[in-house]
From TrEMBL, chain A:
This is Cyclic nucleotide-binding protein. The lineage of its organism: Bacteria, Pseudomonadati, Campylobacterota, Epsilonproteobacteria, Campylobacterales. The keyword Flavoprotein does not apply. PROSITE patterns: CBS, CNMP_BINDING_3. One of its GO terms (molecular function) is [protein-PII] uridylyltransferase activity. SUPFAM superfamilies: cAMP-binding domain-like, CBS-domain pair. PANTHER family: CBS DOMAIN-CONTAINING PROTEIN (PTHR43080:SF2), CBS DOMAIN-CONTAINING PROTEIN CBSX3, MITOCHONDRIAL (PTHR43080). Signal peptide: none annotated. Residues 15-129 form the Cyclic nucleotide-binding domain. It holds the Pfam family DUF294_C. The keyword Cytoplasm does not apply. Keywords: CBS domain. Residues 218-277 form the CBS domain.
From TrEMBL, chain B:
This is DNA polymerase III subunit epsilon. Residues 30-203 form the Exonuclease domain. NCBIfam families: PRK09145.1. Pfam families: RNase_T (PF00929). InterPro entries: Ribonucl_H, RNaseH-like_sf, RNaseH_sf.
Amino acid sequence: MSLRDQKSFLSNIHPFELLTEEQMDKCIRHMDIAYYPKDEVLITPENIPNHFFVIIKGIVHEYKEDEILVDYHYQDSFDANSLIYGKTNNSFKVYEDLICYEIEKTIFLELIENNDGFKNFFLNNLVNKFQTLKDKEYASELSSFMIAKVEDTILHPPCIVEKGTKLIDAIDKSMQYETSTIIVKFDTHKYGIITDSLLKIKVLLEGRDLSIPVEEIAISPILTVNLDDYLFEALTLLIKKNIKRVGVVNNEGEIQGTLEQIDVLSHFANHTYVVDSKIKNARTLKDLKEASGELVDTVKTLNAKGVKVHHISNLIGQLNTKVYKKIYKFVVPEELQNNACLIVMGSEGRNEQIIKTDQDNALVVKDGTDVEQYRPYMQQITETLIDFGYPPCEGNIMVSNPFWCKTVNDYKKDTARWIEAPDMQNYMDLAIFFDSFAVAGDKELLINLKDDLFNKLHDKDVFMAYFARATLTFDTPSTVANFMTKTYNIDIKKTGVFPIVQGIRSLSLRERIRETTTVKRIKILQQKKILEAEMANELLEAFDVLNTLRLKAHLQKIQDSKKINNEIDTHSLGKIERDLLKDSFKIVNNFKKFITYVFKIDKIS
Amino acid sequence: MFKKLINSWQRKKLLDKKYEYLFDNPLKDEYVCLDCETTGLNPKKDEILSIGAVRIKQNKILMRKTLNIFVKPSKEITEESIKIHQIRPIDLQKAIEPKEAILNLLDFIGNRPIVGYYIKFDIAMISKYTKEYIGVSLPNHQIEVSSMYFKTRKRSSDYEFVDLKFDTIMKNLDIPELGKHDALNDALMTSMIFLKLRDLSPANSTFYTG
């Protein structure tokens, strides 16, 4: 390979592109190309070679004793650790005829010494490795992991007035700032807001005088986002709270400006906003159906714009809740609405269903109210949802099923039965039910039920062990080669997503955590010191990677008009995606061991 | 025996005793793989435009010891040949005189066996020059990768056709393709073919006894 070819090969491999021209030349001057046939052992704890390997073609497996830990492919490199630390516990063996570059050890160490980016890549732990990859703009492959920050938008300079300012003077100042938003400073870090619509209601309608002090009508505290929050979080807040603007604060809590909904929307497609207002304005089920039908397009747009999958699911969850609320309002007679609570459960309850794959919902009816009068309406709700394109639940976990439409007391009997006489079905029902989230009606009914559930589980260690054991139901591959060579479709839900969800769910149930989304649960578990920060961060990263790959596969299947399932074609993954997937599986496998340990699952099986 | 005789006869014709080493017994497990780009396919009248060569030691292609030289042609290269070897006049700006190039090459090769694809042609081209400069043609042992490849192909009869095109061999052996029509890249790909075939029987015992 001419020098130029070698250079272009190497600079396509992270982190070699971080080398300076001079360092790259040096690297190239000190490397050879080697060929090793299948089964050749390259590195063992007893024999560490004097060079660093970069694969041009072929596959190498890293073993610990007999277990394959990692597999290396085209453009992968190894083994920095044994060179840096001068020792390794693992061995490396050629799995498929190998052609590779060999970079001289002394040169490799010299590069690490002299190039911080290069050094960080090899020395960092997994989480940092993810971060390094993400911080780099690998436009196409990593775009879905990237996202704009609030500070990237145009901020309107805030019109701030002190407490005690006369309203008329404040309005005058706002005219100079050419804004309709007046920020009232009550105290350090305490702000209120006056908007045009507030003036209309509180001043014009109520006939107040313009000489009153601003604090008399200002709404306080103003909702804010941080400068380095993701823009997407701001949008979610705007939609959730149904407001048009938020204040933007810096890390010291000082207002830096205001962010208008329109600014956020100019960053994303207008789509989200359009869907949101369509849902809001829908006056009939037909309108609503049309609006909710656009959710898939919204997901596509957001995904294409590089919005993080966690944020997409959050937003879709918000919109979805609104759809449920409206359906409930349209279908159930008004006098019945507040004596019951419509809940979504399972992945819908966790806000983790981006592309609709099924519906899990139920109705909790106040004790003493006749459940029968709700039945026809619940039937109608299920039919409406199916009509809206929410596929029916195979397990019939839907409000139309009398089992999932009953009084608080009846649910309590169920949870007691699930705990006392558990079988696989009961564990799954309990798992789904624990993830429930109230979308319409009287939310207190569900809160009551969860309290009851938590109390019943007090001191039920054996039950919890069985419940947690479901985390281990499906195998998680430890290498990519297993499916690179034979089957290259893997069920990403069974192998990766489910173990995280179920493990975290088990911990949350034991710790009485009411949050339903897996991401928030992980954060709370970390605060409670149930999970160490490192494991929590790794889980969040892995969960994000797995869901991103799953969403990508879902969208591809929709585009190809194929049936949606959770299989992903690993042959279609790029190098970085493959690395991230491998690392994620490693994290999932570690987490499984952790769950086995903390719930003492070994003791029951 | 016969070969020795020719060798010693050749040796006598050497103009410069400095090059006697070419006739020594070569080091074990070291090779040179080379490829030439030429103005045409007739060693009698065509000229070498560039030479790419790499050393191979055991299982390694020693990239840090490569040779990539461009040779000044005696006359302008024709448009026809530019199309084939893709060496434009501008590429020849850093070209050196043929004599310097060939002597450099001899130093690089030493007495190592020479590996190549249709290597006879390259050797014939180079020998044309060495005869002029040092009085002998290249005496090194030659290893032909296409015949190594031929021996590894399972055939139903002796008459069955085996496709020996470079691209076919590359593809069947799963060798990564580098940039084409660059003497050094060609030499490098040929080296990979050699290393891979060397491990396959029956070629193992048949070739490179040196």
